[in-house]
Amino acid sequence: MRQILSDDMIITLYWNRNEQAIAETDSKYGPYCYRVAHNVLNDPEDSEECVNDTWLHAWNVIPPERPNILRSFLAKITRNLSLDRYRQRTAAKRGGGETELALEELEESIPGNSRVEEAISEQELALAINRFLSTLPKRDGDIFLRRYFYMDPTSVIASSYGINERNCLVILSRTRKKLKEHLEKEGFAV
Amino acid sequence: MTSEQLLRAIGSVDDERLAAVEDRWAFTANDDNISNPHNAEHSSVSKNASGFDRQSRPKVIRPAVWRKWAGLAACVLMLLVCISIPNMLRMGKGAETAMMTERAYDDAGFYDKTDSEESAYDIAAYDTAEESAEAEFTAGSTAEAPASDISIKNAAGAAMEESTESLNDADSLFFYNEDFTEVRLGRTRLKLLTADQFAAYGISVETLSGYVPEQADHLADKVCDASGSRISDADAYDFPTDDPKQKLILVTFSDGTMSLYLPAE
After folding, report:
1. Shortest CB distance from A120 goes to which of B5, B21, B27?
2. pTM, rounded to two decimals
3. Residue A66: CB partners within 8 Å, gap ≥ 6?
4. CB 3.0–4.6 Å: which of A31, A188, B35, B159 could bond B119 by disulfide?
């Protein structure tokens, strides 16, 4: 049976510019990243390509980056690449899928009079969201991230927490409402 | 701000927070209905190595899972009941016959526990009991007895009854030889009824249907299973012929199969 390297060893391979790093990453996190991509794109081929792009991206940024948690680091890269690909793919036509639903749902969390779009720093917004998440009960925070980070279908989330889908939708709706209030309080609304 | 910006901003949450969510939820790549080409390639390696298996999912009570287990348990229970009912019916029939035999003895006034207590369990004791019953009859102690065979039946039957009682303790039962043609029940030796005996005594399989399976097959099964089988019950029955000396022993094995034996001569 093949030995699985620790994250530290894989990162060391990247730092040593050893191409084995990609094979090891693919072996350990391939299914995980594929799942992240698939939730966004809902397409096997696109998802597979996104995973491969993720390895290339990781190769390009490590070094100088040294991720604390390789798993989350890779998930974020995959997610961003998948969203980019999703945007390209739906430039001509808007498709269905979880991403479209997630986007529609998040519309209601956007403060009414938001700052000028260009002025919004994504980093600032991310910090505000982080602060918001720390105010939530653990379960509600988990459900929120599973829906809007991993874009899991609500039915899947509901079943994994032992609640019905309707209940899950209500929790998400309340959380979005709270997010809106939080963002307004943080000054994202003029 | 657009919803896409918000969605992307959510993608920048703390790594620690994401890792915590994943640890609690155990994000799995093999979940549900996603056809993942990575799974076939890496499932045995990456799933375990990265800890994204279902086993580390959050410990939440999932009614659906409990329902599944409850359904499974109900199915197993139903299966057990279905399997045991035919055996119970057969056993019930056997017990009924034994009871009728015993009642017949009582009605005739020949059933005497003292006789059976004094009787030994081995074949020598069987003979002794038979002789004493004959002597008893000769002395006229059983005035109403129409014939000596009834007394013989009494003594032999009592011995069999007694041996049957002792046989119900599975630990006291063991097989006499490896092919089950001879069985020792307590201290009573029994011999499996042969096909010749069936013919000689005019017993057909049909006569005994409900009590004993087809002998050859049954014996073959027993031989195959010799090391593990135990007797679960044994009942004495009147032999379905006019021969009063004979007492048929129906042995029920723990697997539900039955065999007919005769006391060894």
Report:
1. B5
2. 0.45
3. A11, A15
4. B159
